[in-house]
């Protein structure tokens, strides 16, 4: 499309010379086009999006707008004001630059303005930004939505987000308007913003995440309610999290919010809002990245409690109107037949799985107040994961278990393992084993890759990577075909990775296909029957929508506990019995010794006293731990009732003796491949 320059009207061609000639008009048009192109190129070079640059260039060439101040000129005006100590003109310039859609182009000017350390300048800057945002919101309201901006609005939003003064709570009203501008844009524009966040450096992304997190935290503490400002800020945080998921600049833990994860936050109300989407459009549960594993476990517990309560109430009503029905899932098991008894009773009463659990060991007295359950899970897991049971392999280097490829019919047993995991979650127990992370990824429906094999089988992973990187003749040096070998009960079996795989040689041309099929066999097809049964058992208890609030890493923490050992928190919440108190000399010596232990020795102590070297997802501060006096000074070693997290400690008379006896005890405790 041709653009004509200004004209004084049609020429009459008269001889008086008062009207411009055709050549003059042509020259005027050429000059206009030349200026238009120059303005356009200058604006694009300064980072203005092409569509926005074209519109502004047309105004500049027509004389209906002034050229925006470029960064060097702006910085020069800042320096002049600093030298002369006269800020009047600079204040006017700041007001024009940061309040105008056309002029806003000085994103790098923030640092120069901050270095002036001038309150008037800061206030003028924020007032200008506020004015701009007000005009944008008003324009959107008048237009009934956001018009096509050609990237101009996106660029302005990105510039405004970098304003360091937004971190000051006094300016949160401006940030509030900015989040409203962002979240009121159409989905396509929001997607463009996410794409722009992908270009952020780690520092840039951290800064914006920190900015939004601070706003949510302060505003939530001050208002004590979820309002439009919280909703908009959380949605913006969601865009940042979406970008980070794609580019992984920062840890996912940086999206946990302190206020939302505070014990005082009404998580039950948020859960209720989530469960009633027809009444409530917003809930933090819709943005699960904001919740840490501890809070998610509380949400899961709410769901479990609700389901257990329903089962309990139904059982009571049935007992009244139909006949005696136990409101609990009661497992009566013999120690010598633990797996068989558990299987039979679960199969007979599958409808009772979501009732509160009670365990009774046949021939033994005792009321299950939690300790018996803990011992039940410890013994059951120990037997199921025994290598002689042929269900799982154990890697002594990674200390992880994985499903064994085999043709044995163990579907019922693998389903039991899944049910046991679900029962432990439902009843608040952590389990003494570890799967590789890919297990939890598969439970969540994620795809598997070669990298996931690194934990499952490090040696095989290294071998496959070496094969892919090998530049010589694969056929001559490796001598492989499309087959895989595996062992079951001492016998070796061979299986084709593809049709007629035994007759297909691995070459440089097909080695990537071979690696893909090999990985798929180890992580997918080779254990498909076992994993399907395991997943089926797990989802019988944990198949609801709450499960999808978790990341795979968080699901592992939920089942196996957290690896973070905060012994300061444990000391703070420890209870004492049989004559001990926190002022007792032996107790003070105990904690002095414990706090200087190496991390590995702390894990050993935790395993010795509780039966596990991992801690509840809420941390050691939530672990019920008791230390009892076990007689006066003697040569006896400390002992423990692991089912009750109960340490029996003789009253050793010196710190040296206590340390010697304690280290001897924890280094000679029987383990389960967990240390």
Q: How would you sum up this structure, described in words?
A:
With 675 residues, this protein is α/β, with parallel strands linked by helices. It has 27 helices and 10 strands. It has helices spanning 22-45, 50-62, 71-84, 88-99, 110-116, 119-143, 152-161, 172-183, 187-197, 202-223, 228-247, 267-275, 293-321, 338-348, 371-384, 411-426, 437-443, 453-456, 458-469, 474-478, 511-523, 528-542, 552-560, 567-573, 585-595, 599-610, 655-667; strands at 329-333, 357-361, 392-395, 400-403, 483-488, 491-496, 575-577, 626-629, 639-641, 646-649. It has a 4-stranded mixed beta sheet, with helices on one face. A hairpin with a 4-residue loop joins strand 9 and strand 10. Helix 1 crosses helix 2 (50-62) and helix 16 (411-426) packs parallel to helix 22 (528-542). The chain is globular. It starts with 21 loop residues before the first helix and ends in an 8-residue tail after the last helix.
Which secondary structure elements does this structure contain, and how are they paired or packed?
Elements lengths: L21 H24 L4 H13 L8 H14 L3 H12 L10 H7 L2 H25 L8 H10 L10 H12 L3 H11 L4 H22 L4 H20 L19 H9 L17 H29 L7 E5 L4 H11 L8 E5 L9 H14 L7 E4 L4 E4 L7 H16 L10 H7 L9 H4 L1 H12 L4 H5 L4 E6 L2 E6 L14 H13 L4 H15 L9 H9 L6 H7 L1 E3 L7 H11 L3 H12 L15 E4 L9 E3 L4 E4 L5 H13 L8
Parallel strand pairs: 1-2, 7-8, 8-10
Antiparallel strand pairs: 3-4, 5-6, 9-10
Question: What is the structure about, briefly put?
Answer:
By secondary structure, the protein is α/β, with parallel strands linked by helices. It is built from 27 helices and 10 strands.
